[in-house]
Design a protein that fits this description.
There is one protein chain. This protein has one domain. Strands 1-2 form a two-stranded antiparallel ribbon. It is built from 11 helices and 2 strands; from the N terminus they run ααααααααββααα. By secondary structure, it is mostly helical. The mean pLDDT is 85.
Length: 313
């Protein structure tokens, strides 16, 4: 437990430092892009190693290449928009939308999965499985995280606050829900939640995790905008009167914490399902006390689309 607490604290501090650094370095220096690509490459390597225990698996270059390409597709429109003066000029002048780039890149990766399989077809009954695994790979580690990445940029009115408030909530709410679930489960856990998939998860830990996610959402919703205003990282943002990240104040934060916390639990169970099917307890041993990169980011991956709905729709 000591190792988990120490490493978890270090990762939380590093995540906060990443967000602060990105305030000043992006978009000219796409700091968040480099961090995201490194995490994606590490997670791709771990997931591909897990798949070696299945009868068939697609080549690593196809899986990791598709993941990195889909994630990279988030940036071009925003960088162009920055040099055109911001405020959605890339869409106004050229009709460009970042989600179009993401969608077409994912479609290209899907088609490539079929094309790459054709020359190596040997009538072994594994072609469709390899194609399906490649598409799942790119959707899981490439497409779902795009919802998190897109929170990096300002949203048009009436969404309150700068983008890093939204990004911080999308990362820290599910992760602090994880922390609360872990300690609540260890202290009070009696009733197993999904013994076939994750034997250590309990309903008591589940409730504690949701409470932790809600409390984190309430705290961040009230404090992030005043904090960002205080550091004056961008004069273009005037947060006067915008005391919360979410429209709707505490009630919105309550809903955000519950739904994002629940999505985080589902993300954890989804990764556990993958590991169990591949007959492994952890994705890797690269992060002491946690397992691998995939074990660290699994809850955030599933929470990202739900957080995006709250923060952008």
């Amino acid at each position: 437990m000591r190792t988990r607490i120490l490493v978890g604290t270090i990762m939380a501090v590093l995540a906060a430092c990443m967000l602060i650094a990105d305030l000043y370095l992006a978009p000219v220096y796409p700091f968040l892009l480099l961090v995201i690509l490194l995490l994606a490459l590490g997670a791709s390597s771990e997931l591909h190693r897990l798949l070696q225990f299945l009868p068939n698996r697609p080549p690593f270059w196809l899986c990791a290449g598709g993941v990195l390409a889909v994630l990279l597709a988030n940036w071009p429109v925003h960088i162009l928009d920055y040099y055109l003066g911001g405020s959605g000029q890339a869409k106004l002048q050229f009709g460009l939308d970042p989600w179009q780039f993401v969608a077409f890149t994912f479609a290209g990766a899907t088609m490539l999965a079929f094309v790459a399989e054709a020359p190596r077809y040997r009538n072994d009954g594994g072609a469709l499985l390899r194609i399906a695994l490649a598409i799942l790979f790119v959707a899981y580690l490439g497409l779902l995280p795009c919802f998190l990445v897109q929170l990096r940029w300002p949203a048009p009115p009436p969404y309150p606050g700068p983008p890093h408030g939204a990004l911080t909530m999308a990362i820290f709410v599910p992760k602090f829900g994880d922390v609360a679930a872990y300690f609540t489960g260890r202290l009070f856990g009696r009733h197993r939640m999904a013994p076939a998939i994750s034997p250590k998860k309990t309903w008591e830990g589940f409730v504690g995790g949701l409470l932790g996610a809600v409390l984190t959402a309430l705290l961040l919703n009230r404090t992030l905008n005043p904090l960002l205003q205080a550091v004056h990282f961008d004069p273009a943002f005037d947060l006067a009167g915008q005391s919360s990240v979410l429209r709707g104040g505490d009630w919105a934060a309550l809903g955000f914490g519950l739904t994002v916390g629940l999505a985080g639990v589902l993300g954890d169970l989804a990764e556990s399902l993958i590991k169990r099917d591949c007959r492994r307890k952890d994705a890797a041993d690269t992060v002491p006390g946690f397992g691998g990169v995939l074990d660290v980011i699994d809850s955030v991956i599933f929470a990202a689309p739900v957080a995006y709905l709250w923060l952008r729709w």
